[in-house]
Amino acid sequence: MADRPVPASSPTGSSAAAPELFDHALLQARQHRAERLGAATFLLERVSEDAMERLGAVVRSFAAVADIGSPGAAVGDALRARFDDVTRVDLLGRVREDLALAPQSLDLAVSALALHFANDLPGVLAQVRRALRPDGLLLAALLGGDTLTELRQAFAAAETEVEGGLSPRVAPFADLRDLGALLQRAGFALPVADVDRIVVRYDNAFALMQDLRRMGATNVLRERRRTPLRRATLLRMAQVYGERFADADGRIRATFDVVWLSGWTPHDSQQKPLKPGSATHSLAEAVKRRE
Q1: For the range 164-170, what are the long-range contacts, defined as Cβ-Cβ under 8 Å and sequence gap of 24 or more?
Q2: Which CATH architecture describes the domain 24-290?
Q3: pLDDT tens by residue, 87-114
């Protein structure tokens, strides 16, 4: 699986010439289609519940709160049930992903299952960092790691066999280490990144693809192939999927890696690492005492 490229950022935090991987206009159209079909919200609902649980463990009050691009209503509704001042900030449809957030205007920013579609993720994180007041918190969940690795492998095998080549079918996802590094690069203190792996089982690959349509999560890569998918390729993909990723009962597995990111804007009250050479006892002395 190819990892998502992480563009280099400029001194201001926004990335220089970030490639436009995703067609945001098409993504909006796909999300609207999902609503008409009857959105599949089980993943978003789980992430929303997890976000509220994580916030519940934070001993800190938050006044001004922003929901950064979370699709659907689950996250926004959960935030409004807990906080009085909640603003929704759309990620899609903005020129160069300019969030138009005033500096130091927020205490908490939450984003669920949205940032993996950002064309300029370093720039978006830098904007959120500037918008947070000192000791403000960013809590974000985005798809990463091995998300849909089974579907990616099945399509790759089918297209190679049937068509003699590959085309981008599943978006690349950043890994945990790269995403954690982006938090640090954006200037967040006490950065934490962890993964919640969710494995969903389906009757077959077609049921999975139907759910992806109802999530508004089908292919929106700008470099996607514009010709219709061949029926032979689709059928072979489903066959390969079943051969490689089915359980004993015949149902297939689909992996969703939800990467959780959290970081604080620097504040004097936060713990800081000791400066090199500031220890009052050497390691050798500590070992001798233990012996």
Answers
A1: 167/224, 167/225, 168/219, 168/221, 168/223, 168/224, 168/225, 169/219, 169/224, 170/219
A2: 3-Layer(aba) Sandwich (3.40)
A3: 999 988 777 789 999 999 999 999 999 9
